[in-house]
Design goal:
12 helices, elongated, single chain, alpha+beta, 2 domains
Length: about 500
């Protein structure tokens, strides 16, 4: 431990002694680590851990593939059909919902409110965490009875209309001139279908009323097995209500985040590969700087070897300097990543991901940054340390002897590092040029109509029933007859 602290103190003095070298190396590492940390933050939030629900991996959307497999549409079953789905052995539960565009009344100005009616077991099946109070219970929506007049508020609605008042539980909320007792406020990240208010929903036996459903598969049931089990059931539904399903369909359940993987997964992983190449270029820069700096330290290392320092001791000292440099670069890189991530969030289109996705620097991302720092420290420091630790005191002390920077081995190492940097840079430039070419082609693609002076108009009450990227249902709930805006 004493020798390690001694190495750290000596390494710190060496870095302070060479501010130009230290600043250049830290900037090279900070850019690479900052960019990789920011992009990994997006990948972690959007692809690896997008939902806070404990059972998110087992929840699927009920969609069907149209003829030829060119598209998917949603299917909204009726009450009796929901009962049949609930009896299927492959399902743990069926999450039944409907959408209601209601008016907040009883105040000075009325306001549109987005409401999701959710079956009584929905909160427990999803594992929704409550900030205040309780969620919707099965007793709030008994079969054959009218739902209880209770309401659960979303976090954003609670903050906006009640200013975050913790005493909101038990107060009344008036929607469409009907009073509902507020029984709970959900935690910020639990934005299931992103409404303002949740109300209890009873599944009726009216065959004319349809519902929006998601399915919760039993453990071990694959999507292929679910599609095979759903095929005869949906064929029966098609015979009962032929207008609700397209011809020649096939069940095609999909995970909650499958549309994000399909639309943005390739782009995000490509960006991550690009920033890792940028990090590799930065490591190459620092390796060259370390080799060049080693020229001035050959006599110092020769003296240490002459007085009895073994090669392993010199190697450890040089690796300690490299790791310290990597840690400093990682610290500045994490600070840089906050700025890069803020820029990425500004560039992301609205509703690019599910509403539960929170893109931020969190503990797993910080652990990733630490791992990158350690890996880069070993990566750019190991080869120069191996080269410099081979110091031969007799050769260095002889006047006129070439130092490592001017030796054949040194020139070869420099040539390899520079060639690698040029190759990686050309690869990045080629990828960037290809991306710009594709973007330019998309800008000039023929749309089939003249977009000049054409605009779209959306209304506040025309809210999407579905999540961004989810196929639009063919038949909507009877309580949602208005047009819904779909976030593409």
């Amino acid at each position: 431990m004493h020798s390690l602290l001694q190495d750290l103190r000596y390494s710190l003095r060496q870095l302070i002694k060479s501010p130009g070298f230290t600043l250049t190396a830290v900037i090279s590492l900070a850019l690479g680590i900052g960019a990789s940390t920011a992009v990994f933050s997006v990948i972690y939030a959007a692809l690896l851990h997008p939902f806070p629900y404990p059972s998110a991996d087992s929840i699927v959307r009920l969609t069907v593939a149209t003829k030829g497999g060119t598209g998917r549409v949603g299917f909204n079953p009726s009450g009796p059909q929901v009962r049949q789905l609930q009896q299927m052995p492959i399902l743990d539960s069926v999450l039944v919902m409907d959408y209601r565009d209601m008016i907040l009344t009883g105040r000075e100005f009325p306001e549109n409110v987005d409401v999701i009616g959710l079956i009584g077991n929905g909160f427990s099946d999803l594992g929704i965490s409550m900030l205040l109070g309780r969620g919707i219970l099965p007793s709030d929506a008994m079969d054959g009875q009218d739902p209880q007049p209770v309401a659960v508020l979303s976090y954003k609605f609670w903050r906006k209309h009640f200013l975050g008042d913790p005493g909101v539980i038990g107060r009344m909320l008036q929607l469409d001139h009907k009073s509902y007792q507020i029984v709970g406020v959900i935690s910020p990240r639990f934005n299931w279908y992103d409404p303002d208010v949740y109300l209890p929903l009873s599944v009726t036996q009216d065959p004319m009323r349809t519902f929006l459903v998601d399915l919760r598969l039993k453990p071990g049931v694959t999507h292929e097995a679910a599609n095979a089990a759903l095929q005869p059931v949906l064929e029966q539904f098609a015979r009962e209500t032929p207008k609700h399903l397209p011809e020649h369909f096939k069940p095609a359940v999909e995970g909650l985040n499958e549309w994000v993987l399909r639309r943005y997964g390739g782009t995000l992983y490509l960006m991550f590969g690009a920033v890792m190449l940028l990090l590799a270029i930065g490591c190459g820069n620092v390796s060259i700087l370390l080799l060049a700096r080693g020229t001035a330290r050959q006599h110092e290392l020769a003296v240490r070897a002459a007085v009895g320092a073994p090669r392993s001791r010199i190697l450890r000292q040089l690796l300690t300097e490299s790791l310290l440099l990597a840690v400093v670069g990682a610290a500045f890189g994490v600070a840089t990543s906050y700025g890069i991530l803020a820029g990425i969030r500004l560039l992301l289109p609205p509703y690019a991901f599910a509403p539960e996705v929170v893109v931020r620097i969190n503990l797993p991302v910080l652990f990733f940054s630490v791992a990158v720092a350690l890996a880069t420290g070993v990566l750019f420091g190991l080869w120069p340390a191996l080269q410099l630790s081979r110091t031969q005191a007799g050769r260095i002390m002889q006047s006129g002897t070439r130092r490592i920077a001017g030796s054949v081995s040194g020139r070869r190492t420099h040539s390899v590092l520079i060639a690698g940097q040029i190759a990686l840079t050309l690869l990045l430039l080629a990828a960037a040029g290809s991306a710009m070419k594709g973007f330019a082609a998309m800008l000039h693609r023929t749309l089939g109509y003249d977009p000049h002076n054409v605009m779209t108009l959306t209304c506040r009450s025309a809210r999407a029933l579905i999540r961004p990227g989810q196929p639009a249902p063919r038949i909507l709930s009877s309580s949602a007859r208005k047009w819904r805006r779909r976030r593409a």
